[in-house]
């Protein structure tokens, strides 16, 4: 066999393999970049059987599946959340960072309507934060609220009977007059949570932050232009055009949804806090809906 024939074989083989590769479905082709997408939407931590909230228990498996996608160039988070539970926000944040570091995969956050309070904490898990011109961003603070009914109780002639062990076991009871010591205590707790939130933002955004602490961490929120100016976000944009610009027009962006059984029901995680059907009533769903509505309404939604 001639030497030239031997040398030409590897080139011929490459051309044949290249031609065959074109015939494969896109999901099987290694030459087409993949960026799995995870949606993190809704109020964080507020949950009822008919309105499952955004919690680690409901998002952990989805995040793990996204970071397990073979040869993923990045993981994209589509965030639309006004916040909620600081603990659940931080648990989800930590899981994203753990997976990103384990797999050595960059994370991109795309804020839609709102990435505020706990929703902004989720965005901070990303290496870059991209938002629409009209996105609401920020609200780095802590809020808590309640109602008081002591005068109503008195008017109705209802006597409150409460038995406790421990001087601080009952605080801010809505059926009793407000105690200044209780208010002082809850504000101290909020201040501590706020300090942790500030440290988290500083650790993730670092030198990109461009403003005084008094402005950045006042609890105020902004639209995209101001958020980018302050260093709380990086760019304008939306998922499809941004990923095409970075990875090419053929980039695949599979949406990684929650796993469901053949009936279409969500498969619970081992960490799931979901309650069995029938254990909660209409009142629970109504309260959950009102809480959700109140949190969204802070940002005009």
Secondary structure elements and pairings:
Layout: H1 3-23, E1 37-41, H2 56-67, E2 75-81, H3 86-103, E3 107-116, H4 118-123, E4 128-131, E5 136-138, H5 150-156, H6 180-205, H7 213-216, E6 221-222, H8 224-229, E7 235-236, H9 239-247, H10 282-297
Parallel strand pairs: 1-2, 2-3, 3-4, 3-5, 4-7
Antiparallel strand pairs: 5-6
Helix pairs in contact: 2-3
Polypeptide structure, described:
The chain is an alpha/beta fold and 301 residues long. It has 2 domains: 31-139 and 220-301, Alpha-Beta Complex (2-enoyl-CoA Hydratase, Chain A, domain 1); 144-206, no CATH class. Helix content is 42%, strand content 11%. Helix 2 (56-67) packs parallel to helix 3. The longest helix is centred in the middle third of the chain and has 26 residues, at 180-205. The protein starts with a helix and ends with a helix.
- Please state the overall shape, judged from the principal axes of the Cα atoms: elongated
Strand content: 5-15%
Report the end-to-end length measured between terminal Cα atoms: 76 Å
Strand element count: 7
- The CATH superfamily of the largest domain is 2-enoyl-CoA Hydratase, Chain A, domain 1
Structure classification: alpha/beta
Oligomer: single chain
Tell me the series of helices and strands, N- to C-terminal: HEHEHEHEEHHHEHEHH
CATH topology of the largest domain: 2-enoyl-CoA Hydratase, Chain A, domain 1
Number of helices: 10
CATH top level of the largest domain is Alpha Beta
Average pLDDT metric:
80
In the CATH hierarchy, the architecture of the largest domain is Alpha-Beta Complex
The percent range for helix content is: 40-55%
Total tally of structural domains: 2
Largest sheet: 7 strands, mixed
Radius of gyration, taken over Cα atoms and rounded to an integer in Å = 25 Å
Point out poorly predicted stretches: 268-280
